[in-house]
Amino acid sequence: MRSEEIEVRTGSVEAVHDLGEECERFLRSVSAGDGLLNVWVPHATAGLAIIETGAGSDDDLLAALRELLPKDDRWRHRHGSRGHGRDHVLPAIVPPYASIPVLGGRMALGTWQSVCLVDTNVDNPVRRVRLSFLPG
């Protein structure tokens, strides 16, 4: 297994950050053939989604999360900015991991699929993402 940790700056706004370029660069660096790419976010307030980006789906995901997990005072977990407790519930809905088949050194994603970091926590502008390749 080969592994690398990258840093992603999401800033101070909710974000869906496409990790495709970072994943492809990593796979090239490990001379990946067939196997499995595991992507892991070691944070209690972020997740990973396989989703279309650039056509509004990323904004739709954030809008749906705002409806499902409102940023208000209902949350028992209360440190950080108002409504931050909802960010700690996010990984139960948008998991902190994704596994993607790799064929011939490339992710076997569908035409419109992208691997994305989902970060609703505006208190933490820098995220770490662990990329691991397990040869087949």
Automatic annotation (TrEMBL):
Residues in coiled coil: none
Domain of life: Bacteria
Family annotation (PANTHER family): UNCHARACTERIZED PROTEIN YJBQ-RELATED, UPF0047 PROTEIN C4A8.02C
Family indicated by similarity: Belongs to the UPF0047 family.
Protein name: Secondary thiamine-phosphate synthase enzyme
